[in-house]
Amino acid sequence: MSIDPRLVERRRTVAEDNAKRNVTRLLKFLAFVLVAGSLVWLLFSPWLSVDLVNTKGVEASSTNSILVDVGVMAGTPMIMVNPGAVERALLADPWVAEAVVMREWPDTVNVEVVERVPVAWARTAGGWTRRSMDGVALPSADEPGPEMGWVDLPEVSDELAPETPELLGAIAFVAALPDELQEGTVVTRVDDELWATVSGHQVRLGRPVDMEDKALSLTALLEQGVLAGSTVVLIAPTNPAVQTPGSTDDSPGHDQ
Question: Taking CA 198 as the corner, what is the angle to CA 196 and CA 200, rounded to the nearest 5 degrees?
Answer without folding.
Answer: 115
